Amino acid sequence: MSRFFSSKYKNLVPYTPGEQPKDTQYVKLNTNESPFPPSQKAIEYASDAAKKLHLYSDPECRELVKIASDNFGVDKDEILFTNGSDEILNFAFMAFCDSAHPAAFPDITYGFYSVFADLNGVPYEKIPLNEDFSVNVEDYIGINKTIFLANPNAPTGIALSVADIERIVSSNPDNVVIIDEAYVDFGAESVIPLIHKYNNLIVTQTFSKSRSLAGGRLGFGIACKELIADMNTVKYSTNPYNVNSMTMATGVGTLLDDEYTKENCLRIAENRQWTTEKLAEIGFSFTESKANFIFVKHEKADGKEIYLKLKEKGVLVRHFDSARLCAYNRITIGSREQMQIFINTLKEVLEEIL
To answer: pTM of the predicted model, to two decimals?
Structure first.
């Protein structure tokens, strides 16, 4: 770092994104992207918006907000669009966390939570998951902290029930609870309807996973209008034009073609089931995933060695080096063809290792 870098960030450890290699053509199963392209309607809307890029984008995202509010059953002032769901999460850390309102989240979860906390100087507690990687709901009851929970969680894919989340939200009435639903469309149940019952709940989602727009960078938060107004204050104090015109238009097209999204989610869920069955046949165990990925380990083979040998053979998955996770690999669920290649290659790897 340079000698000009602020000392307040000297200990900041940035988030490490999944590999995006350009040197080799991989079967890419490491960053939970959709194997399916955006809907044709989304592409057409984006193409039309490109003709007006000499103008600023609408800071209020009015057309997108109107369609989304109808889609999710909320009012227009109960939704806020952002540059990916990471931005809405950062807004939440900025708006609702401080020394008097420390954050809390699982010790194994989306890695950006601790980064955002450190970036914003927010004290936080990492609450250990159970031995089976599930969230212990009792650990979050009445803790009087700003709670961040990914549901389904990452990298495990394990989901909490709506009833369990409601218990957490209702028991912390003086603190905001943020439920990160980046993967909810693949088999879990959204808690968006609860925002009309609890004024301390924020639900975030993204267009990156189920809606095939990882490169589009579009996310949103849904909450009561007061919480949305708070986060709008942060938005308009940082970047009013945070969603560009083409991404906004692509989001509109995507929501207008919702059947395409639902069909893709169903196909991914089917491929997830097929893949777990094949993995079980060759000695793997895994958590019960409700996401577009699975978290797996082999009793006789080292997780990192599996990852490295798969990479050598052109299949890229995600490995984590921390002590509790190093036996596991996270596998994005792709097309059936991709998953067949993965299973065939994995069998070759196991023959070499065992």
So the answer is: 0.97
Q: What phi and psi values does residue 209 have, to the nearest 5 degrees?
A: -100, -80
The domains located in the chain, with CATH, are 10-36+259-353 (3.90.1150.10), 40-257 (3.40.640.10)
Q: What is the pLDDT of residues 69-119, one digit of tens each?
A: 999 999 999 999 999 999 999 999 999 999 999 999 999 999 999 999 999
Spatial distance between the Cα atoms of 161 and 181, rounded to a whole number of angstroms: 12
HSE value, Cβ hemisphere, 13 Å, CA-based, for 126:
13
For residue 157, what are its two tokens? 């894919």
Q: Which residue in the block uniquely carries the two structure tokens 């890229």?
A: 316
User: How far lies 155's CA from each of 37, 166, 294, in Å?
Assistant: 23, 23, 8
CA–CA separation, 210 and 199 (whole Å): 27
Contact criterion met (CB below 8 Å) for 184 and 288 = no
What is the tens place of the pLDDT at every residue in 225-263?
999 999 999 999 999 999 999 999 999 999 999 999 999
